[in-house]
Design brief:
GDSL_Est/Lipase; four-stranded parallel sheet; Rossmann fold; signal; globular; alpha/beta
C-alpha cells in the first residue's frame, strides 16, 4: 500500500511540474538544482549506444532517448562511455547476474563499479539508473513462462540488489542526486502478451514486485534519490493513446528480430514509428522514450530535489 501511494504521489508531482512549465511556454528549466553532469547506468531502457556498432535497442534514428532528453532539458549532453561519455547503460544487462543472451552486457553492478572507477562524483552531478527489464525477461524465459514462487523470489531479489546499487552510489560514491526508475509493464508488452493473458498478468505482477523491492531498499534515501515508476507512466500512455498521438500500442514497428538492428529502413511498410509504442517486443520507440524523460524527470526534477518529497 505504501509503495503504491508513493508511486502515485511522485508521478502526480512530476506531471504537475511539467504541465506548469509547459503552460508558461518555457523552453528551459529553472530550479534550485543546476546539474554539472549527467551520468547513467542501466539496461536497454537507457542504452544510448553501448551496444554493437554503437546502435541502440530501439528505432535507430539518431534522436535522444529519455536519459538524453533529461540532460537536454538542462542544456547538458549525455554520451555513451564507449564514446568518452558517462553512460554505461547497455541492453541485456541484468542487475547482478551475468548476461546469458550472448551480448556480453556488463551487469548494472559492474557498470556502477566502472562509473566509480572512471570519475569522482561532484555535488552537482546527477546519476540516472534504470533496471529490471532484463531480469524479468530472463527469469520468465528460463521458466518457459511457467512462473513459480522461485521466479517471483528471483525477481524480487534482483529488485533488492538494484536498490543496493543505488545505495552504493549514495553511500560509497557520494552521489548527491540519483534518478531511479524500475521496469515498465512488461505484461502488456508484445513479448509478455505472446505468452497469453494469464501469464501476461503474472509478468505484470513480476514487474510490480521488482519495483516494490527497489522502493523498499531505498526507502530512507529520499534526501538524495528520486524514484519514478515507469510502469505507471507506461500505463498512462497505453490507456490514453490518443492523448499522446499513439495509434498502435500492441504491435512492434520494427521488422527485425534483433533490437539493435532496427532502423528507419526496417519498419512495417508505411508505418509512422512516432505513433507506435513499441519498437520491438520489449523496447519502446524513440518518441515514447522522450515523452518518458520529459514527463517523469526532466522538467520537474530540480523542484523535486529542492522540496525533498
Amino acid at each position: 500500500m505504501h509503495s503504491s501511494v508513493l508511486r502515485r504521489a511522485t508521478l502526480a508531482l512530476a506531471l504537475a511540474g511539467s504541465a506548469a512549465l509547459t503552460a508558461c511556454g518555457s523552453s528551459s528549466v529553472e530550479s534550485a538544482l543546476t546539474p554539472e553532469r549527467f551520468l547513467a547506468v542501466g539496461d536497454g531502457y537507457s542504452d544510448i549506444g553501448q551496444g554493437p556498432n554503437g546502435t541502440r535497442p530501439t528505432v535507430n534514428d539518431g534522436s535522444n532517448n529519455w536519459t538524453q532528453q533529461i540532460a537536454a532539458d538542462y542544456n547538458r549532453t549525455l554520451k555513451p562511455a564507449n564514446e568518452g561519455g558517462y553512460s554505461w547503460a547497455q541492453a541485456y544487462a541484468r542487475v547482478t547476474q551475468a548476461d546469458t543472451t550472448g551480448h556480453n552486457a556488463p551487469s548494472i553492478t559492474q557498470q556502477v563499479t566502472s562509473l566509480l572507477n572512471a570519475t569522482t562524483l561532484g555535488d552537482r552531478d546527477v546519476v540516472i539508473m534504470s533496471g529490471g527489464l532484463s531480469d524479468v525477461y530472463a527469469e520468465v524465459e528460463a521458466a518457459n513462462g511457467v512462473i513459480t514462487d522461485a521466479t517471483r523470489a528471483a525477481v524480487s531479489k534482483a529488485g533488492t540488489e538494484f536498490g543496493q546499487q543505488v545505495r552504493r552510489l549514495v553511500k560509497d560514491g557520494g552521489a548527491k542526486y540519483v534518478l531511479v526508475t524500475g521496469v515498465y509493464n512488461l505484461g502488456k508488452s508484445p513479448w509478455g502478451l505472446a505468452y497469453g493473458d494469464e501469464v501476461a498478468a503474472q509478468i505484470t505482477r513480476l514487474a510490480v514486485a521488482f519495483n516494490d523491492a527497489v522502493l523498499l531498499e531505498i526507502n530512507n534515501l529520499a534526501e538524495n534519490v528520486l524514484f519514478r515508476d515507469s510502469a505507471v507512466i507506461y500505463n498512462i500512455l497505453a490507456n490514453e493513446p490518443d492523448t499522446y498521438g499513439i495509434d498502435n500500442e500492441d504491435t512492434p514497428v520494427c521488422t527485425v528480430a534483433e533490437a539493435y538492428d532496427c532502423t528507419t529502413s526496417t519498419l512495417l511498410p508505411g508505418a509512422n514509428y512516432d505513433t507506435y509504442l513499441w519498437s520491438d517486443s520489449l523496447n519502446l520507440t524513440p518518441r515514447i522514450n522522450r515523452i518518458f524523460g520529459d514527463r517523469s524527470f526532466g522538467e520537474s526534477m530540480g523542484y523535486q530535489f529542492q522540496y525533498r518529497w
